[in-house]
Amino acid sequence: MYSINKGFDNKFKGYYVHPHLINYVAIWVSSKYAVTVRKIMDKINETVIAEHEADKTQAIADQFHYVINIVTDTLSDRITDLNQYVRQLVPRAVPNGKERTYILIVQEVNEDEQLEDQQEDHITIRIRRINRKELRPAKIERYRRESLLFVDNLPIAMTINEKIKETLSSRQDVKI
């Protein structure tokens, strides 16, 4: 590493690392990274030596490039598999037993009568998602009776827009 402190703009001052030494600096920074790189390089070296012992007519550099390509392809496949696995996971990590503790309530909002006279063909609704544990059973029953749409045991990460549209469209006096 070398330091540049004189004769340059402030944006160029600081510590710089030669490109050949970047891996060594990264090893000093993270021991986990160092162990991972060491394991990969040991596997590559073992494979190159084994292939060179099996076929001494081929240059060791060619065997090295062949092994590097195989290792790179294997690691790329593993990364692709892990990415697909992550995409298949639930959008949010939810503790066990807490997956369906929400209630969805769609209510008609009653505003001033003047606004209702002006907009007779419009309805204003309020959509709420409430944690079930924050409500008493009597309040849950009241919501069940008075709301346009009441969905109990709603999954946390569920988007329910289509269900709301279908339910409200099925009413004769509502247009969406």
From TrEMBL:
Residues 1-44 form the KilA-N domain. This is KilA-N domain-containing protein. The lineage of its organism: Eukaryota, Metamonada, Preaxostyla, Oxymonadida, Streblomastigidae.
